[in-house]
Structures are given as C-alpha cells and as structure tokens.
Design goal:
The chain folds into 2 domains: about 190 residues, D-Maltodextrin-Binding Protein, domain 2, CATH 3.40.190.150; about 120 residues, D-Maltodextrin-Binding Protein, domain 2 (3-Layer(aba) Sandwich), CATH 3.40.190.10. It is built from 11 helices and 11 strands. Helix 2 links the parallel strand 1 and strand 2. Helix 2 crosses helix 9 and helix 4 packs across helix 11. It is globular, with a radius of gyration of 22 Å.
Amino acid sequence: MKKIETHLAALIGAAAGLCASAAFAQTYPSKSIKMIVPIAAGSVTDVASRFLAQELSTSLGQPVVVVNRPGANMVIGAQECARSDPDGHTICVTSADAMSYNPFTLDQMSYDPDKDFRPVTNMYFVMEGLIASRNNPAKTVAEMRELAVKSKGGLNFGTLGPGSTTDTFRKWLSEAWGAEFAAVPYKGGSEVINATIGNQIDVSRIGLGNVAGYLNDPQVKILAVRSAKRLPELPDVPTMDEAGIGAYPGRPWWGMVAPAKTPDDVVARLNKEIIAVLDSPKAREFMAKQFLELAFGTPAEFQEFLNQDRANAGQLVKKFGVK
C-alpha cells in the first residue's frame, strides 16, 4: 500500500510540475528580457544583436534590452549569464572565445561552458578580413608577409585579448610566416578598427562588418577576405585562399544560450522565435550587409556543434601553447 501511495504522490507531483510549466509557458515572457552581449558596443556583433533584440521585442511582446558586458575574453559576459535567474528573461549572445577557447586558455574559469548554460541556437559565422593601417606600406598579403619577416621588433597585431580566436590566429600566422607579431588587445571589433585608423596597430584579422563603412576608405586597407569566392563589394580583394593564408582551421561564430535550468519549453520558444527572425527576408538582407553568414538550428544541433568546435579549439591551443 505504501508503495502505491508513494507512486501516486510521485505522479501527482509530476502532473503538478507539468501544469506549472505549461502555465509558465503560456505567460512567458512576463517582463522585459535582458540580452547580454559580451563585446563592446559598436562592433558588428553588437549591431547584429541590437537588430535581433528589436525584432524579438515585437514577436515576443516584451522589450528585449541589449546589455554590453565586454572584456576578459568574453568572461565578464559569460559569468553574468551563468549567474542570472534561469527564467528565460536573460538570454546571452556567446562565441567561440567563451565556449570553445577559454576552457583551454584560462588557468581558472568562473563559469562552466557545459554546466552553466543551455544552448538555444547558433546564429551566424563571421566573414573576416585581413586588414592593415593606412601607414603600413604593404598593399598585398605577399608584401605584408615580407614586411613582417623583415620587421625586427615585430608588427603590432590587434586581437580581442590573450587566448582569443584572433590571438590564436596571430600565433598561427607567426609560425606560418616565420615572423613576429606583437599582440595588442581590445574589447571589440570597433576598437580594433579605431586603432587601425589611428595607426596604433599594423595589421589584424577582424569581421568585415566592422569595416563596412570603410570598404572604399584609404584609412583601412583590406588585404584579403575569408570567403569561398571574392565578394561583390570588394572585387579586387583576393580571398584568403587565393592569398595563401586559407589553411587556418578556426572560424568565428556567434550563438545564443540561456542560463542552466531554463525550462525546456522556454528554450524551445526562444529557439523558434530567434530562428523566425533570422530566417526572415529582412534579417537575411541586414545580416548580409554586415558580412554575416547565417547558420541556425535546434538546441541539440547547437550542442553538437559546440562539442566539435571545442575539440578543434583544444587542438589549436595545444599546438600553439596559447595562454
């Protein structure tokens, strides 16, 4: 009899939980949603996030407010996300730096990429460019390589911080060219571009959306782009494959996660709403202008992608001893 009573109690408890979950799903969202963006305002990811937030505000019926938390290789934003209430009213833009590289490059982690977040969906890959300052005499990748090899003190290379994807590329390029590059860290792509214009750095690898306003501006030289073929906007700029630097295996991406223990139905709702926005003609046109390649799917597909990307990052970090 006691076993039956225990079983009935468990069934009643489970039913109550399902009812509560269903009721919550019907009322979600009940207040404004905070979207944590772990990079500086003005960067291409920030611009794309604000577009997404505006569209989600309409579809979800509640304001979606972007909160920038740049710095420390995305750690500041990831840490705030991990410590937020898992009620679906905090969603978090994340990247390869936060989820794939930091576990290998940081001696101590204030968050756990596996335990502290729930994948919602990947969103896009970033088309990149190898850029140089106007005072840099190199006009081609070949000239940049020659200049870097001859430079005694090493050229200044703009990165997003030690151990970031851009810093790992710097180390890879140093080995590939047999040249020295001095890392100069910044909190976002917009800061890298400003430093390039100000001739504080010689070269960098950054998302092309950050230089969208400088495509035909002599203040910034675009030496090569990472894409399958030459871009219509830059017909005279070779791809990185054409320029001989296409072998680098890493590729920057951005996605959306939520704090751990966010309910399944809320994650499913967020996934559905975000994909609906990104898959719209309006978003596709907007993202293309930011040089972003859309890529989205189910939470399970994003989790599988995260696992593989972290494995790839681990191999790169181990090879180049990034810390």
